[in-house]
Amino acid sequence: MIVGLAFPETALIGLLFAAIQFGAMIYLASLGELIAERAGVLNLGVEGMMAMGAVGGFVFAIETGSPWLGLLAASIVGALVAMIHGLFAVVLGANQVVSGLALTIFGVGLANFWGTDYEGLRPDVQFVDVDLGPLSDIAWIGRIFFQQSPLAYLALALGCVAWFGLNRTRGGLALRAAGESAATADTAGHSVVGLRLFAVAIGGALAALGGAYLSLSISPGWTVGVVAGRGWIAVALVIFGAWKVRRVALGAFLFGLAMALPSRTESFDLPWHPILWSMLPYLLTIAVMIAGALILRNRPADAPAALGVPFRREER
Amino acid sequence: MIRPLLVRREKPLPGGQPLAFVLGSSVALFLGAALLWVAGDDPTEVYQRMLSASFGDLEALSATINRAIPLALAGLAVAIAATMGLWNIGAEGQILFGATAAAWVAQIGNAWSGPLLIVAMLVGATFGGALWALGPAIAKAQIGVNEIITTLMLNEIAVRFVRYLINGPWKDPEGFGFVQAPALPDQSELPGLFERAHIGALVAVAVLAVVGLMVSRSSWGYELRIAGSSGATATYAGISLKRKTLAVLVLSGAVAGLAGGIELTGNATRLTETVSNGYGFAGIIVAALALMRPSGVALVAVLFGAVQVGGQSIKAIGVSDAVSTVLQALILFGVIAAGVLVAYRLELAKAKVHSL
Lengths: 316, 356
Fold this sequence. Notes:
With 316 residues, chain A is mainly α.
C-alpha cells in the first residue's frame, strides 16, 4: 500500500514522528484546559501559562543542570500563575473570559521579561529522545513510537491518570459535578471553590509542561514568541475533543499532524502554500463546532453545563 | 473555625469604579516596581522615563494618542458586543483583516487622489472587519455556535492569511528578496494634526460618540440592552434575537476593522502581520476596565496607550518592554480586586455560615 507512493519513506516517518511530538506537547496543555473546564472554569490563559512554563523550565534546567528539575519547576510555576486566574475568576467571581485573557497577556509579558537574560543561550541541558533497544530498532514503528522524548510518554501517562481520575474516582465525580451544576456539588458537601481552584492549578501545571516540552525538547532554548499561538490550539483541541480525555488524545494526534505538515508540504507534493496548511487546526476546530451545532441540535451539549459561570454560595 | 467571608455592602463606597481604578492602578504600579526592583532595575528611573515618553511634551502626547486610537476602537468593539452579552475576542483578527482590506483598496486605487484613496481605504477596512466577524455572527445567530471560540480561531487564521499574502501573491516585487508587502502609495498617509498625531484621532472620537450614543440613547440600543439582560423578555417584546446578534457582532467587527484601516493609513508604510500588534486583546482589557461603557473606553485607552508608549521608551535604558505588557494585565487585576473591595466588605465569620 505504501510502496509506490511518490514521496520518500523517510519523509512520511518524519511526519508521523513530528505529529506525535507536537501532538503530545499540545495534549499536555489541552489536558490541563480540559480538567479546568470540566470543573466549570474556562481559562483562556493557556498561551500565557505555556510561555511561563517554557521560560521557567528552561531557566531552572540551566541553573540546576537537570531537565527533570526544570520540568518540575515549570509545573510549579504554571500552577502558581494559574492561581491568579483562580483568585480572580473562581474566588472573586470575576468574568472568566476577561481574567483568562489578562492571564495570557500577563504570562506572555512576564515570560518575556524573565527570559531576557536567557534569550538565545545554547542549552546543554535538554531531554534526549529515548532508546528502547530492540523496540526502537523496529522499522518505521521504532522511529515513530519508541524514539520520542520522555515527555511524550509522560503525556500519555498523564492522560491515563487524568482519564482514571476524572471518570473512576469520587474526587473526579465531584470535580465534574462542580462543572455541571455547582449548586448540586455544594449541596452534596463539596467545596466548589476548592475543587475549581484545584482544577485550575492542575490545568496551569499541565499547560506549563506543554511549554517546557517546547523549550526543553522540541526546540531547546528560549526565544520570545516560542509558544507562537499554540496555547490557542490547546483551547481549540478541548472543544474538538468534546471535553473527553480520549477524544482529545485522538484530536491531539490530528492537530499534531496539522502542525507538522506545513514545513513538509514539499516532500509530499501537496498543493497550496505551506502557510495555508498552517491554518488547518483552527479551521478544523471551527468546522467541528459548526458540525456539532448542526448535528447535536436536539441533544444535550458536550460542554460542561456550568462552564464559565462563577459560583457564589450566597447568590446561588 | 473562623473563615473570611465577602459580604456585599448595602451602600458601595463613594466613588465606585473611579476609586477602584485609582486604587487598582496604584497597586499595579507598585507590583510593577517590585518586579523591576527584583530584576535589578531602578523603578523610579523606569517610571519617570515612561511618564515623560508618554506625557512629557507634545510629541510624547501625540505618540500616546496614536496608540490610544486602535485601543479605543478595539475596546469599543468589545463593549458593543458585550451590551448584548456577547464576547468578541476576535478584534485582533478583525483589525488585521481590516488593514488587509485597506491595503487591497490601496493596490487598486494607487493612482487615486489622497482624500479619495484614504476614505476608500477606511471604508474598505470597515467592511473587511465586518466581513471577518460575519462568519461567527451567522454561526452564533443561526445555530448558536459559541462566538468566543470562533472569533478567537479567526485571529490565528487572519495572521496566517496575511503571512500567506506577504509570502505569496502580494510579495513585493521590488523588495530585493525581502519578504514584505509592497509599500503603500504616499498619498494614502492620513493628514497630520500636530506632531505625530493624525486625524485618525478625530475619526475615532467621532465613531466612539456615534456608536456610544446609538447604544445608550437609540431605541435600537435600548432593545439591544434588553436582549442582553434577558433573551426571554426580548423575544416576548418582539425583538429578534437572531437579527440583533448578527447586527451587533458585525458592527463590532466593523469598528475593529476601521481601527486596522486607521493603523495602516496613519502609522504604517506597508501591510505586515503585526499591524494589529495585540490591540485586539488589549481592547478586551480596556473595555472591561471601562465597565463596557463607550465613554470610559476612551479614557482607559489613553492610559493604556501611555503605558505602551512608555514601554517602548525604556528599551533605550536596557529594560525589556515586556514590563508594559505586564503592567497592563496588572492594572486589570488590580482594578478587579479593588472593585471587589468597593462593592464588598470582608467579614470574619465564626463556624460554618449557611445562608440560604
